Amino acid sequence: MTAVSSTIGVIGLGSMGLGMARSLLRAGLPVWGYDIREEVRDAFVTEGGQPLVSLGEGAATAEVLFIVVVNAAQTEAVLFGSEGIAPRLRPGTVVVACATISAAAARRIAGRLAEHRVLMLDAPISGGAVRAAAGELTVMASGPEEAFQRAETALGAVAAKVYRLGTEAGQGSQIKLVNQLLAGVHIAAAAEAMAYGIRQGCDPEALYEVISHSAGNSWMFENRVPHLLAGDYRPRSAVDIFVKDLGLVLDSAQEAVFPLPLTASAHQMFKQASAAGHGREDDIAVAKIFPGIRLPAAANEEG
């Protein structure tokens, strides 16, 4: 087997992680990538990346390691599970933890990594798959200055904006939860607005055109409604992501005894869509919960 000499690793080559890996490659950086799906690893090879069949193969070579998985449980499994790589990482390695997790989980993971003399940036990301592929993500990061310095080139390759939000883990994740609160509420509101307009006889295309140029517009309305208009529910970000993320927001608010009425309503909408079988569809599929309307169909479904 060829020895792995790359110094940047990306674990999780999904819609976000693969785009980030591509951006790192485009910047001329040596990158290895890992994903449990063989077809994804094969695709990574065709783009000049170096795939890993097992994490143990390359963990010790990483100077900067992006972990782009779904949640805290997956992040901890990669690092501390039965085949966790934390003990194999060299002292001074920077783990860039990109999953949307609670602030408490970020602090816990950073503390466990510190026991191995490994640095961590609590660095959730925003921008979607398109911006990930373009190297234009927003990174909301907190962690020690040394970690920022060591990861500076890699972060610059994947992000248009890197916000330094403090020296302690948890601060980045908390701001990401505020972002997810807004994103989830805006998607739910966009779905409700489109469903209401369709029910009242508005032409969906005209409705989108007018609202996207009016005061009622939002980034999420403008970004997600075209998926609905095309009848295209391939998951760029899935319904179940917001079941999870808004759940994290509500859990943290519960601990603080703080009311979040709009978040709670949006969370119930996403849960209803998931329970109806739409959990793995694009998050705008939350519009499918509204009765008595006919949403636009994909081109190959018309007729």
From TrEMBL:
Keyword NADP listed: yes
User: Catalysed reaction(s)?
Assistant: L-threonate + NAD(+) = 2-dehydro-L-erythronate + NADH + H(+)
What residues does the 3-hydroxyisobutyrate dehydrogenase-like NAD-binding domain cover?
Answer: 170-289
- Pfam family, any one: NAD_binding_2
Q: What is its EC number?
A: 1.1.1.411
Q: Where is the 6-phosphogluconate dehydrogenase NADP-binding domain?
A: 7-166
Which GO molecular-function terms appear in the entry? Answer: NAD binding; NADP binding; oxidoreductase activity, acting on the CH-OH group of donors, NAD or NADP as acceptor
**One BP annotation, GO:** organic acid catabolic process
Keyword Ribosomal protein in record: no
Q: Which residues form the signal peptide?
A: none
Q: What's in the keyword line of the UniProt record?
A: Carbohydrate metabolism, NAD, NADP, Oxidoreductase
Q: Where is the active site?
A: 176
Family, similarity comment: Belongs to the HIBADH-related family. L-threonate dehydrogenase subfamily.
What the protein does?
Answer: Catalyzes oxidation of L-threonate to 2-oxo-tetronate. Can use either NAD(+) or NADP(+) as cosubstrate, with a preference for NAD(+).
Q: Which NCBIfam families match?
A: ThreonDh (NF043037)
Q: Spell out the protein name for this chain.
A: L-threonate dehydrogenase
Q: Where is the organism placed in the taxonomic lineage, from the top?
A: Bacteria, Pseudomonadati, Pseudomonadota, Gammaproteobacteria, Pseudomonadales
